[in-house]
């Protein structure tokens, strides 16, 4: 057997997660003694709130959590997520519409497997989270990229949607707040896009995992609440990772029409069975508990957001729109490409990222990973001192 067919074509074609690759490279350099500051990780730097940890400790001692549970999730957690969704989004759903998954990525994968057939097309505005195209491809479907930039606030328009739609278009992937751009769609644009989807019979897959990380006068609006008519063709993706600083607990969920949720649960029964019981009990404490810790984390992110935006904007040639949500800045480095930097001349943000890591000991994620070369994502979910030092290193090497 030749080496070319030892791995299946569909899996062999998957690109590794760029964000994890950058984070792992930075960790390896730190382990080797290098003073590296990493802006790659998409996770809060805070510990999981204590009341959630205590719920997990108690769950460890209860033998019921040592056994298999329902593939689609604990009934108590599904009920609590339905209540939380009504509380936070105004979207009324029933527990049978909720499927608990092994993190947000698993929710994305299950959704694509359940909704898409070979040849279907999914409209994906860029910049997009690096993972999205991969499960679409694994389902045999096609990603249709809709480019946006800072001039449009990194938001897609109805004209773009109309121009990209074909007879094979099955769904639109809609994300607000956005990873990586930090863009937040205003309510009237969400309404217009939702109505467009209704009129064209197109599914909406809306990722709301950053729903609580909104800054300034911006507001989060859930599309099925703004456009109730879309609810029967809408899948909402969410999880505890970002809101509650629980990235390592691996609990996400999808909310879908009951028949789609049932299909996702059936699929999961053959993939992973249930999410770990202890983690589900921790998630139950998170979604049914107070949001005080969430607001405290958001206040810290907001402070860091302002510092990062100000410092990046002061670097000659760097254009940095102010992040409206999530915990990322997404500046353009187009004007500095092609210029000598530390004895090298990067012509792409991939090359620039290598120069910054090698010479400034700063790790960023190049825009190529998100479908928009010329930009880069910098997370401000890291300590204030590291943030300031890291951006200053970028400014120093770029001549700012």
Give an account of the 3D structure.
The chain contains 14 helices and 12 strands. The radius of gyration is 21 Å and the shape is globular. The N and C termini lie far apart (55 Å). The protein has 400 residues and is of the alpha/beta class. It has 2 domains: 3-47 and 293-398, Aspartate Aminotransferase, domain 1 (Alpha-Beta Complex), CATH 3.90.1150.10; 64-288, Aspartate Aminotransferase, domain 2 (3-Layer(aba) Sandwich).
Layout of helices and strands:
Layout lengths: L8 H4 L5 H14 L5 E2 L11 H11 L14 H15 L8 E4 L2 H12 L5 E6 L6 H6 L3 E6 L10 H7 L4 E7 L11 H14 L2 E5 L15 H4 L7 E6 L12 E4 L2 H14 L5 H12 L3 H22 L14 E2 L19 H12 L1 E2 L1 E2 L9 E4 L4 H15 L2
Parallel strand pairs: 1-10, 3-4, 3-5, 5-6, 6-7
Antiparallel strand pairs: 2-8, 7-8, 9-12, 11-12
